[in-house]
Amino acid sequence: MARPIPAPPVTVETEPFWNAARERRLVVPTCSACGKAHWYPRAVCPFCGAEKIEWRAASGVGTIYSFSVMRRAKEPYAIGYATLAEGPTMLTNIVDCDFDALHVGQPVRVAFAETENGPPVPMFRPG
Amino acid sequence: MTIKGKAYIAGAYEHPTRHAPDKSVAQLHAEVALGALADAGLARDDVDGFFCAGDAPGPGPASMAEYLNLTKLRHVDSTELGGTSYVALAGHAAAAIALGKCDVALITLAGRPRSEGVATGTTPRLRDPNQPEAAFEFPYGLTTANGYAMCAMRHMHQYGTTSEQLAWIKVAASHHAQHNPNAMLPEVVTVADVVNSPLIADPLHRLDCCVISDGGGALVVVRPEIAKRLRRPAVKIIGAGETVKHLSAGTFDLTISGAARSGPAAFAEAGVVPADIKYVSIYDSFTITVLIQLEDLGFCAKGAGGKFVADGNLISGVGRLPFNTDGGGLCNNHPANRGGMTKVIEAVRQLRGEAHPAVQVKNCDLALAQGTGMQLGTRHCSATLIMERE
Questions:
Q1: Residue A125 C-beta-side C-alpha neighbours within 13 Å
Q2: CA–CA separation, B213 and B121 (whole Å)
Q3: Which stretches of chain A score pLDDT less than 70?
Q4: What are the chain B neighbours of A40 within 8 Å (beta carbons)?
Q5: ipTM, 2 dp
């Protein structure tokens, strides 16, 4: 990984997400009251307001909703939105890819990346 | 209850500087405040309402109220909506005046990102670790440029918009900037110049991005009785709207901005439709920002923005919808990385008939200013203001 990835600022609210990430598991916060998955993770369901969030294992597959290759950086990198099979669309990086072959709708799969002194963060690679 | 016709913009002033290493931010605020008051023909002691946003040094309005030595204040508002704050604050000032909370409202903006060497658009920044989304955005290198770029990429995918069509927005701005002696980039550019400039964040090129400038601007909004005894042409505020648009918990459409909500609210209050508008100031942090807002305001159908802006349609005297006749943020000025103030100021110039003769819109009696603050690609604030010449 060329670009050093800064550690995510973990809070007490999102600790379960990051504990799973340390085990290289992508979990998607899902409300057990209304059944809806959401992103970014929070303790209060943004759809029904219940504080009954379950951290459900995600399939780890999705498609690129949009992306941009940051050319004006020491090491160019691809930022993108991936729409998960579980529904929500999340911000991420697309890694291990040919920048010039990236396209909207492309299937991607989760790949955790190490950060500087923090838990790994979910990124995605083509496939 | 409406603000329609309850308040007038009596003073407007844009600082001529684009590079101010020799001035402090507070000093710039003071210079634009005094400039706008002089333009209106009012004095500092007439001011009883003070409005500012996140660029004002110190917490809220307190430090600047003291620096300016405003001693008659009975209403203050420091609503922070990013770069569009001043479009919204003009509406807030009209509302406060309508409610009798103040008679003379001063709105200021100033900053010096150019002197301070802020790598504004291309450096990821962690603003506040308590922002609930911070952990899910900061590690990925989200910057101003690549956030807006993802909106452009999605718009291209969904509607077939091209880089050449986006380039026309910059070309139009440059045609206007050539007549502005204070513009940072007064050279006329072509579509080829834009699409051949280096890629910053795909698909946005260097010339799709706005300038980084020092400077500022200010407005004075007054009650009708005061406007009538002042010497300046009267610019009446007739409609305002504002909103926040965000990622809706992971279910969003990046091709739609908050203008889709703030625009219709402002049009409804003003009692006019897009076809009535003679001139528009549209926030132009990037070319894509303009295209998406024009669609959302109803100047063309969603997805038809590329065709709408092409072939000079935004150039004054050439196209159907003259925009940003000062050269906008793309070519003229983006003081403090906040373009909302200059959007309102150029609309006021147009309505007064005081724009540069080469870009002045004939019989300009109805104008709209539209701003998008913060990040179009995640969460942003939108404000729309409609003004009429009497």
A1: 7
A2: 13
A3: 1
A4: 132-133, 135-137, 247, 250
A5: 0.98
